[in-house]
Amino acid sequence: MKDYDFKKDIFRIxxxxxxxxxxxxxxxxxxxxxxxxxxxxxxxPSPEAVERVYSYAYANGLALSQAKADFFQEESRKQILLFHxxxxxxxxxxxxxxxxxxxxxxxxxxxxxxxxxxxTWIAEKRKGSVYAFYFPIQSKLRSCRFETGREWxxxxxxxxxxxRGFEASEKVLEIARIVQESDYVIAPIADNQMYQILxxxxxxxxTDEACFHALSATNLGMQYVFKSAKACSKLLPLDRIYLxxxxxxxxxxxKEAMSKQGLSKAQLALIEYRRKGKYFDELFTRIR
Length: 288
Hints:
Distance between the termini: 50 Å
Structural class: alpha+beta
Order of helices and strands: HHHHHEEHEEHEHEHHEHEHHE
Number of helices: 13
Radius of gyration: 22 Å
Number of domains: 2
Strand order of the largest sheet: 2-7-6-4
């Protein structure tokens, strides 16, 4: 698995700002010799030094993480560009067995199509980075795809345990079976706000119609869930992207603003459709 491409990033940042090694070393508060050794890849910098280098770039207007994402997208050809935000360091190859439950579709390696979503996920965490991957479009792997709709609602509710105490219908069980038998799943990304809406439906506070329209008000992009080792083996690691503290703060602010906007749309949908559709216990039978 790739680590930070610090050697190339120092060179990129320095050339972008038109600085010599001496001038750049002075800007980030290190010796020229140390910076030269980092740029040559002969010595690894301390975490504090890494933060200073990337912070300098971001504070002076170079959003290197987004630029990298844009380059990867331009070069993707027939490959899907994916991002995975995590507090952990990924060593070796990825696998589907280390996700922390509850998850939207059970065990799997989760990655999204949007850098912003992965970045906002780690924005408020002390440690964390974003890994970028290519996933070649596959015809030999089993897959299923959900759009924002009732099948997606039922799948997420099922795998998050909302049907405990209820008899899942044949339709829900069929959806769950298809997910379990797939090598990978493509579906909308759900955040905490969307989980709250789903939980409101599962607890008979809103109808299925209101739930569906409230969820449709939020668009966070799509996620790929790699559920088999075979699917995970097809992922091609590109880079481990560093986010400096200031960049994380900006993503956190953007996340808050986006959340408020999505909440406003969802609340309007709940008002508009509050008397339409059916409640959870009208659709599913409680186990006695």
